[in-house]
Amino acid sequence: MKYHIATFGCQGNERDSEMIAGILEKKGYKATENINDADVILFNTCCVREKAENKVFSRIGKLKELKEKNPNLIIGICGCMVQQEKMIERVRHRTPYVDLIFGTHNIHELTKLLDNIREQKKAQYHVLNDSENIVEGLPSKRQFSYKALVNITYGCNNFCTYCIVPYVRGREKSRKPEYILEEVRELANDGVVEVMLLGQNVNSYGKDLSEKVSFAQLLKEVNKIPGLARIRYMTSHPKDFSDELIQSILESEKVCRHFHLPVQAGSSRILKLMNRIYTREQYLELVAKIRNAFPEASLTTDIIVGFPGETEEDFSQTLDLVQRVRYDSAFTFKYSPRTGTPAATMDNQVPEPVKKERLQRLMDVQNKISLDINKSLQGKVLPVLVEGSSKGEANMLTGRTETNKVVLFPGSPELTGKIVNVEITTPQTWILKGEIKENNM
Length: 441
Ligand code: SF4
Fold this sequence. Notes:
Elements: E1 2-7, H1 11-26, E2 30-31, E3 40-45, H2 50-61, H3 64-69, E4 74-79, H4 87-94, E5 100-102, H5 110-120, E6 124-126, E7 147-151, E8 153-154, H6 165-169, E9 173-174, H7 177-189, E10 194-198, H8 215-223, E11 230-234, H9 243-250, E12 258-260, H10 268-273, H11 280-293, E13 298-305, H12 312-325, E14 329-334, H13 352-375, E15 381-389, E16 396-401, E17 406-410, E18 419-427, E19 431-438
Parallel strand pairs: 1-2, 1-3, 3-4, 4-5, 5-6, 7-10, 10-11, 12-13, 13-14, 17-19
Antiparallel strand pairs: 8-9, 15-16, 15-18, 16-17, 18-19
Helix pairs in contact: 8-9, 12-13
This protein binds iron/sulfur cluster.
Iron/sulfur cluster binds next to helix 6.
């Protein structure tokens, strides 16, 4: 029996897919890249943007014929999309041949649900609104041998007004530190050199645990684990980025000097409407503290343009903030309403052409800054974790610096998973090109 998983969305979903794959492999299934060859096809979905949902329905639509030819084929949908209200009805209506729906809180039930489908010859749709406890110890089939995602929290308590995540992923729950540290130790023993600690807001880690432990304390403990070379974390909400955390990173040499601090908007008025709980001034103060403590660090961000009510003046404050902070790079998005969130029904929705034009102006400003910063790296020799062959360029390897910059350079795929020194020869806006200097790391 073979399975095929199509994963949409963020690293949280990628990690869930690794666990789903682990459960299926434990049940004796083997993975296949070829969807036509699979006995179980699962779509692990995202609902952050409407587009992602439409894509899933269109992909499932194309499977109708396959299902008609092979009635034993199991087609399933899981992930954030099905956690939304009325989604089960929508799936039933649009793609009635879907056999399996389960949510983000009951992945551990997958084996039972598959057995029920086979035994009862009946579709199984089961989604929970939230979960009381975190289910630990699920099997897992990791995607990479040298780097790994490790959940530290699930869910979110912040309710940014544009975001659907708290509604579909439930309230914030932290994993106990002993489980996290055990998982990281096992990974390091297996040869993993880089871990990414994952949560919707890692900075509030531990607040819900009976034995209080902060993210800053957790980082220090992870830093002690032998064998690891790099520790990353995501996502880091600026409102919870404490001085204690800055101090902990200073004392933890394995924690990468890359700060991804989603600002979302440069105007305090819009930040308030977004319910981000910090002002422009507080954000800039935090950036100054980080720059002061880590002068060599890279800073990246997420920005939404065209949030409801955003005026030209608000937008110019975003441009101004970008110029002040000088991010290494930024993920920039046009605001896209999500049904069920407060922002979707706010007055003064910004017209699409205005959003488009603002996005372009923002990207022009940011791209110039990115190129300027990258040019300053010309001639520098940087340690790069090799991630494998480049998809776009033959005979080239791709890897990342500690500051999370993508580097392309010629080399043997056997170096995958190793940290090599690369001299930067051709810096560009989004990537750095270089040459291996020596391979002694
Ligand atoms: S912090 Fe805000 S943007 Fe991030 S998941 Fe929570 S609600 Fe969404």
